[in-house]
Amino acid sequence: MRSKLSFASALLASAQMPVALGQLNIDINNADTLKTAAATVMKSMVNDYTSQQPFSVGLLPPEYSFFESALFFNTIMDYAAYTGDSTYNSLFEKDFFAQVGSDSDFMPSNSSQRIDNDDVGYWALAAMTAAEFGAKPANSSNPSYLSLATKVFNNYVSRWDTTACNGGLRWQITSSTNGYEFKDTQSNGIFFELSARLGAYTGNKTYTDWATKIFDWTSKTGLTDAESSSGGGVVYAGVTATGGCKNIDKSFFSAQSANYIYGSAAMYNTTKSKTWLTRATLLAGYASATYFGPQMYVDDGSSQVVVETACEFQGNCTLSQKAGKNILFRSLANAITLNAGTNISSIMPRQLNNSATAAGKSCSDQGECAFKWSDLAYNPAQTSGFGEKTAAIEAWLTILRRANGTPDLAAAQSSTPPSTTSGGGASSTGGPAPTVTQSGKPNSGATLMAGSALGLVAVVSFLQALL
Ligand SMILES: *[C@@H]1O[C@H](CO)[C@@H](O)[C@H](O)[C@H]1NC(C)=O
Ligand SMILES: *[C@@H]1O[C@H](CO)[C@@H](O)[C@H](O)[C@H]1NC(C)=O
Ligand SMILES: *[C@@H]1O[C@H](CO)[C@@H](O)[C@H](O)[C@H]1NC(C)=O
Ligand SMILES: *[C@@H]1O[C@H](CO)[C@@H](O)[C@H](O)[C@H]1NC(C)=O
Ligand SMILES: *[C@@H]1O[C@H](CO)[C@@H](O)[C@H](O)[C@H]1NC(C)=O
Ligand SMILES: *[C@@H]1O[C@H](CO)[C@@H](O)[C@H](O)[C@H]1NC(C)=O
Ligand SMILES: *[C@@H]1O[C@H](CO)[C@@H](O)[C@H](O)[C@H]1NC(C)=O
């Protein structure tokens, strides 16, 4: 296989490279090292954001697609929630709403950037995360996070296109835009995940029905085969709506799998249906084999480190593709939480552990991070952008969450709202507000408070800054 060969030679080259000074070495058994690493990279990343010239509030530099700004904000929230460090909460609160747009649909009219369905979608997922954390906008003139997520959901419903392929969202929103003929698994996967999370959060069947419908469409269109136990769990990029919807783009990127894994895990958690467990398990199994592949033998000879298989070996991943690992780690962490003790959580712990360790070696102690974690070193000649940094942070948070038996978002369904959030987004729909469970085991890290108190303290401090 071409990739194996090119990887082997790259590995040889990196093995001969001197180890970079000042690596962010982390010990996955020591939560303090994970928190310190995450804090270091956060600081560097936020500095990249705030020091832009010129600066557009809420936007990453112009070379980044609109969706990547949403990933940046989502990681800021995850960081606050799972480390308890509220340093960046006020920045979140101040800047997130700048890109909401006058219709609260994440299509700001004077955005300098092209906005596609997947762009809008990652903003909606970030808003959903805020809702799940129980956050409320500090400025009451701003719409609730839940209303932002449902607004996008409703827009997606109205954009569901039955004129071709018996359904599906198109990648582009307007017919005059290049790419309008493409029905992609980014946009549809986000719609699926958003529906599943809205269903879990509100208990409203409209959302879970849509999640089922979108998954069925994806499957019938031939974009995934995670339908039966004989399937392989692949998620292909999309289909061209012309020519009878037969022309499937078979490229595969980790974010495509990520959204379907998280959505399926949420659907399993909500419905307890074996069908969804099978789907989630197959999708996760495919992602495990493909994006942490057996080809990635590094370190002790058996470690499997995350790789964006379709482009990383050739070294030609685009800026947007370099954000995939961020989406992958966040989605896997959430899927694991939702299926605690079941199949998904048993699939990848070693791969996640090794990837987090590799991310530590791939970042400098100044918070710059390489994209290719299998190099196990940060080489200043490599790019170190928002994709690389948000991915490393999420990889460490994934381990931190497990180390603390962390909480979850999903606990939203079964727990009572903290009094501080009553009247927040969730209760306005009649659903319970999310809070955190307290079932974790005390962690060895002294600075982590006690056990799952981490989750609780973190979310509370996150709220304090946002309320
Ligand atoms: C839109 O333009 C106004 C006026 O120039 C500016 O204040 C605002 O920040 C811009 N919004 C976005 C989303 O760029
Ligand atoms: C609150 O939001 C509204 C609408 O965006 C804005 O006009 C107002 O200045 C904001 N208030 C504060 C204190 O930021
Ligand atoms: C469920 O969600 C849909 C879509 O947002 C909404 O139209 C409907 O009113 C909701 N139903 C209930 C019972 O809240
Ligand atoms: C999940 O794991 C259980 C226990 O190991 C196994 O019996 C079941 O077949 C698995 N389900 C799937 C969908 O792989
Ligand atoms: C990267 O290179 C491979 C192999 O030449 C090619 O198939 C792929 O389309 C390229 N990817 C990008 C993003 O250019
Ligand atoms: C749903 O998620 C919660 C919270 O993580 C977990 O405790 C529960 O076991 C999950 N349910 C299923 C069926 O996996
Ligand atoms: C992964 O790391 C955790 C510590 O964060 C440890 O408890 C667990 O045993 C490790 N799992 C594997 C498979 O190495």
UniProtKB/TrEMBL annotation:
<dbReference type="InterPro" id="IPR005198">
    <property type="entry name" value="Glyco_hydro_76"/>
</dbReference>
<dbReference type="InterPro" id="IPR014480">
    <property type="entry name" value="Mannan-1_6-alpha_mannosidase"/>
</dbReference>
<keyword id="KW-0378">Hydrolase</keyword>
<keyword id="KW-0325">Glycoprotein</keyword>
<keyword id="KW-0732">Signal</keyword>
<keyword id="KW-0326">Glycosidase</keyword>
<dbReference type="Pfam" id="PF03663">
    <property type="entry name" value="Glyco_hydro_76"/>
</dbReference>
<feature type="signal peptide">
    <location>
        <begin position="1"/>
        <end position="22"/>
    </location>
</feature>
<comment type="similarity">
    <text>Belongs to the glycosyl hydrolase 76 family.</text>
</comment>
<feature type="region of interest" description="Disordered">
    <location>
        <begin position="408"/>
        <end position="443"/>
    </location>
</feature>
<protein>
    <recommendedName>
        <fullName>Mannan endo-1,6-alpha-mannosidase</fullName>
        <ecNumber>3.2.1.101</ecNumber>
    </recommendedName>
</protein>
<dbReference type="GO" id="GO:0008496">
    <property type="term" value="F:mannan endo-1,6-alpha-mannosidase activity"/>
</dbReference>
<dbReference type="GO" id="GO:0016052">
    <property type="term" value="P:carbohydrate catabolic process"/>
</dbReference>
<feature type="compositionally biased region" description="Low complexity">
    <location>
        <begin position="410"/>
        <end position="421"/>
    </location>
</feature>
<dbReference type="GO" id="GO:0009272">
    <property type="term" value="P:fungal-type cell wall biogenesis"/>
</dbReference>
<dbReference type="InterPro" id="IPR008928">
    <property type="entry name" value="6-hairpin_glycosidase_sf"/>
</dbReference>
